[in-house]
Every structure is written in C-alpha cells, then in structure tokens.
Write a structure and sequence with these properties.
The chain has 280 residues and is an alpha+beta fold. It is 25% helix and 28% strand. Helix 3 crosses helix 5.
C-alpha cells in the first residue's frame, strides 16, 4: 500500500496553482518550492554566511554587498530632509517605539546599550498608523519592492549589534543613513561607514554586525526588499506561495517538515494537524 506525504501533496497543489496562473515557467520558484521538501539545493552554511535549509531560492547572485544603483534613489535633497525630520519626530514619541535593547551590547561598562525602532512594516504586513503619521517616509518606502520589514532604527552610542545572519537569500537589506555617523557596518568582514543619504545595500544572509563606538546615536531607515535579480513574476509567485500555504503540516525553515507526516492513500485525507507554517 503506497504512502503519501502530506507535505509533498501540499507542495504539488501549490505548484499546480502557480501553473494555473501562468507562472509554471519560473524555474527558480519551482526550485524554491520543492527544496522545502529536502533542502538539498541549499549550500552548506559557512562562517561568513548562514542560510535557511528549507527556504532557499536557487540561482540568485549572493552579496555580501549589492550595487546601490539597483535601488530606486531619493528624489531630492528635500525628500531626504523630510524623512530626517519625520524620524526626529518619531524618536521623540516613546510610545511608538519598540525597544530592542535586549539584542545589543554596551561597548563600555558605563554604556547604556539601547536599540529603538519604529516599524512601518513587520512580517510582510504594513502598519497603517505609522505610514499615516510619517507620509514622506512612507511614500519613499512604497516606491520599493518591500519584503519583510521597514523601520526607523536608532542604535545608542557605545553600542554594538553582534554578528548574525537573517538566513534568507531571497530578500536583501537596505540601510538609509539619516545622519553622518562614525558607526560602521560589517558584512562578511567588509566594513562600510554611514553617510547621510548614501544607502548601503547588502545581502543579510551574510553574517553582519554594527559597531557604534561614537558619542552619538546611529539613526537609519532600515528596510528589506526582494533580491534585485528576482523578476516581478517571481516576487508575485513567492507572495502567492505564502497565501496558498495550508495549515495542514508542521514546517520549520531550518529543519523542514515535521517527520512522520504521512498518510496512507486518501482514507486519512481529513486528518489535519493544525500548526502554523514558519516563513521568514
């Protein structure tokens, strides 16, 4: 008697839905979707780069840095000034901020390590109130192919963000500095400084860290965009996969589908395990 994998059936169903929408010609999307089953297409992790084993788009050029010319630029100095003014206002409104100080370290015994953020987008969902309150920043963000998140980020003086990877090769990260700063970012051990209005565009699946050894905060607008090599059809497909994903199997981006999720023939097709799929 043949056993059918719940996971494999769901992946096949999603792929059929993409094909029905005229997206079956996208080889990288096919590779991404079916790699969820075994993770065999994903390169091995290295000290300079860590990847989700079961969420990986094959065939995309890795960083560590990307060409900022691949991004839409600021319209003018006036647009940057408007974003800077909105950010200054935002950082004064403590009730709007998210405190991430537990994720950073102080560089000196007397340092009050701190990392305050205000989100415009979180887990692929736009936050309407923030976008309404800060329209110039919102308008700038909406010109880009936003992916996971967008936020104002203020890193306190004498504070560091330790080396880490975001593990997803299909999104990239942008830092738009809102002021000149003596802080620096290191991506795969390649260091760049912060100059107001000069974007830093990088592959955040590479190990990256931030060092602010100065006496002033490092203020940036941080946002994730889809990898610059992904076509609009590929981006639409990745979004559709998220929408079509069922709640019928347990899934983790590092370990894949929960073992033992098998059913025999169609007799047990109504047996559903209600768990959330985890996506980055």
């Amino acid at each position: 008697m043949m056993a059918y994998s719940v996971a494999e059936e769901m992946i096949q169903t999603i792929w059929s839905s993409l094909c029905d929408r005229g997206l079956g010609h996208l080889d990288r999307v096919h590779g991404y979707l079916f790699n969820m089953l075994d993770g065999r297409a994903t390169p091995e992790n290295r000290p300079e780069r860590e990847l989700f084993r079961h969420l990986y788009v094959p065939g995309l050029k890795p960083g560590p840095y990307f060409d900022s010319d691949d991004l839409l630029q600021l319209d003018s100095a006036a647009e940057l000034a408007a974003i800077q003014e909105e950010a200054r206002s935002a950082f004064l409104q403590q009730a709007l901020l998210t405190d991430h100080s537990d994720l950073v370290i102080g560089n000196a015994p007397a340092a009050q390590a701190g990392w305050n953020c205000l989100y415009f987008r979180k887990e692929f969902v736009d936050l309407d109130e923030t976008n309404r309150l800060f329209p110039a920043t919102s308008a700038y963000l909406r010109r880009h192919r936003l992916a996971t998140e967008a936020l104002y980020s203020r890193l306190a003086p004498q504070t560091s963000i330790e080396p880490h990877s975001d593990c997803a090769n299909y999104v990239a990260t942008v830092h738009l500095p809102l002021a000149d700063s003596l802080a620096s970012i290191s991506v795969a051990n390649e260091v760049k400084g912060y100059s107001a209005g000069k974007v830093i565009f990088f592959d955040s699946s590479f190990t990256h860290s931030v060092e602010n050894a100065s006496a002033y905060p490092r203020d940036i607008l941080l946002f994730n965009v889809w990898h610059p090599q992904l076509s609009d059809d590929e981006v639409a497909s990745l979004k559709l996969i998220r929408q079509l994903w069922g709640r019928s199997v347990a899934f983790d981006p590092d370990t894949g589908f929960s073992p033992g999720l098998l059913r025999e023939n169609e007799a047990n097709s109504d047996n559903v395990i209600e768990t959330n799929a985890a996506f980055k």
